[in-house]
Amino acid sequence: MKRLAVLAASLALMPLTLTAHAAELGGVHADGYMIVPVKRVPNRYDAGFSMYSAAWPLLLRYPGNQFQSGLFGTWMAAQSRGKPPQHLYSDIEGGLGWWRGTRFPTAAPKFHLGGVAFNFQFIADAPGNGKGSWKHPRGAYAVAQLSPWLLFPPDGLTLKPGVNRQLFGYGYLPLPLTDPQATTDGKNIPMGNHCWTLFLNTRNFKGPVCFFTPYFWNRPAVKHARLVGKLLDSRWSIANKAFQMETQYLPAAISKIRTGTYARLGQVSFPANSRGNAVLLNRLTSYSRQALWDPVKAWFNGGPAVSGRIPLSQGVVQRFTPHLWSTWKIYANSTSKTQRAGLPWTLFAKAFLLDPASYGFTWNRQLVHDGPNGFRALLPRFYRLVHHGKQVQWHAVHAADVPNATGLKGVNFYPSRRRPPRPYTTPDGPNSSYKKPGPAAGPFYAHLSDGSVVTYYWYRFEDQPALLHADLSQAERDKMQKRAEMLQRHWTKNRQYLPPPTQGSLVDLDPAQLVTPPKRLAIGYVPIVTRQQWAASRRNGK
Predict the structure, then answer these.
(1) Distance CA 359, CA 272 (A)
(2) How far is Cα 248 from Cα 32, in angstroms, rounded to an integer?
(3) pLDDT digits 0-9 by tens, 486-509
(4) Which of 9, 197, 226, 392 makes the best surface tag, with the fewest CB within 10 Å?
(5) Counted domains in the chain
(6) Radius of gyration over alpha carbons of the chain, in Å?
(7) Which residues on adjacent β-strands are paired with residue 252?
(8) Please, how many CA atoms are within 13 Å of residue 229, restricted to the half-sphere of its CB?
(9) DSSP labels, 392-408
(10) Would you give the end-to-end CA distance of the chain in angstroms?
């Protein structure tokens, strides 16, 4: 999600709709980080991670595609030897959230992969969805499908409607699905074989889903030799990662009148139970190479089969400290950085540690109130700017204490209607990698709860477009095919892979994304999405 800060400056913010001219129009929003304090772990736990993040609707209503925020997540970069390389940003981030590029938004968050290669020049958010165009792809072919039981739509994985504080379990561990190569793009640039694989633990799906091809990470090294051996294709991961909630845009309005400056924030919600507590993160675990990499490598080389169950004995759980740090602010874009006033988060909540592996909030019920649809904490909507010497801060006030002259009570953050979203499409020319050698079966359709319909086909694993664009020879793809079939036979969707959470219940994925392979394609094939469009458009023949 860190790339959001880089992209935000180039994206225009949609103007707010106000019913009174006194409030400031456009260019006002709230943003910032919620920073989770964790204790450090030994650097030898460098072979990936897993975690459980609470899922909930951050805003009670979707305000339009300027809304951009992640929920609690992390950034996983390559481990460096000695001094970290300069001018290099590359990682796996993403997670649960809402993005400006989301085309089929839901009240609940969606899940994006968020792979970033070399300073945002290449970005991959899902299989078949990345930076650039299909003529000049810079991430659309970065992710290969591994699971034969789960669709991954280009708009992101959709959760079952009604989610409220259930835990979404996920992580990335490397699998040796390829072998190291001596060349990349025909040049003497070695490429590693770390296939960083997404594992999920939800109530209705468990196991590996898809992976970043090593070529995605190493491709920039062809032009930048200084990157050789420093990227995620060959390097292990940083054991100690940042865990934060990054918010880039929440709708807000500011009004300055003679008696003071006031602000209104869109209705922000957080989870809470009947006691006013909420677990937001659970069991942040980093793994050693003995967790999966070494045993799977031995299995592929003729050793005993590996169950896929990741032993907690080969991981270390990061412990939390009881602190709450926030940089959330409400401000107009024209406000200088030194005068951007913060929200009083330490008055809203305190850190809550239900056990050493759980982090969350306990809410101040004098300021934070229950909301609809079960137990939910609603942040105050109205604020007044207060000066403390040279510092300024927003203090929560009741709606009755906001002068009518501000116009804030009549603010409407929500568009009356939205245009039908553009569909996600894939190349359909006869010589495209989606057509040649092409699928083994299809088309099939899945109707998702986000209002979209997904078109997908069944491809032989090695014939999927991502692997045809992964700088692999036919012999190398044949070897990958055999390894994928070994995994598909043994690692079924309802077995335990990631260590379970210590608290709470698991979220459900939208069941429409769960699929069953055709009988003759049960092993060695994967479902590949070729189109996602508004369901009404398909009914109208568009």
Answers:
(1) 13
(2) 7
(3) 999 999 988 999 999 999 999 999
(4) 9
(5) 1
(6) 24
(7) 265
(8) 4
(9) EEEEEE-GGGS-GGG-G
(10) 34
Query: What is the reported pLDDT for 26?
Result: 61
Q: How many residues does the chain have?
A: 542
> CB under 8 Å to 418, separation ≥6 — which residues?
64
Q: Flag whether 270 is in a domain.
A: no
Sheet with strand 115-117: strands edge to edge? 76-77, 91-92, 115-117, 122-126, 129-132, 137-138
The string of DSSP codes covering 443-470 is: EEEEE-TTSEEEEEEEEEGGGSHHHHTS
516/458 Cα distance (integer angstroms): 11
In whole angstroms, how far apart are CA 27 and each of 66, 67, 419?
Answer: 11, 13, 22
Q: Classify residue 322 as exposed, middle or buried by CB count within 10 Å of its CB (0-12, 13-18, 19+).
A: exposed
Contact 107, 162 (CB under 8 A): no
Cis peptide before 180 (omega within 30 of 0): no
Going by C-alpha positions, the residue among 541, 470, 430 that lies closest to residue 140 is: 470
- Residue 78 neighbours by CB under 8 Å, 6+ apart: 90, 91, 230, 231, 232, 235, 236, 237, 238
pLDDT given for residue 25 in this prediction: 47
Phi, psi of 520 (to 5 degrees): -80, -5
pLDDT of residue 17: 36
- C-beta separation of 384 from 399 below 8 A: no
**pLDDT score, position 275:** 87
Tell me, yes or no, whether 473 lies in a domain. yes
Closest to 425 (Cα-Cα) out of 415, 417, 434, 416: 434
64-104 confidence digits (pLDDT tens)? 989 999 999 999 999 988 777 889 999 999 999 999 999 99
Distance from C-alpha of 363 to C-alpha of 308, rounded to nearest angstrom: 39
Angle between helical axes of 293-300 and 474-490 (0-180°, round to 10)? 110
Q: Which domain holds residue 461?
A: 3-247+278-319+420-539
Q: What angle do CA 500, 291, 246 make, to 5 degrees?
A: 60
Residue 370 lies inside a defined structural domain of this protein = no
Q: Which pLDDT score is estimated for 11?
A: 28
Phi, psi of 129 (to 5 degrees): -140, 115
**Which H or E element spans position 384?**
strand 382-388
**478: CB partners within 8 A, 6+ apart:** 462
**What pLDDT, on a 0 to 100 scale, did the predictor assign at position 86?**
87
Specify burial of residue 443 (Cβ count, 10 A radius: 0-12, 13-18, 19+). exposed
Query: What global pTM score does this model have?
Result: 0.93
Q: Give the helix/strand (H/E) hosting 51.
A: strand 49-55
* φ, ψ at 394 (rounded to 5°): -85, 130
Residues of the chain with pLDDT under 50: 1-22, 25
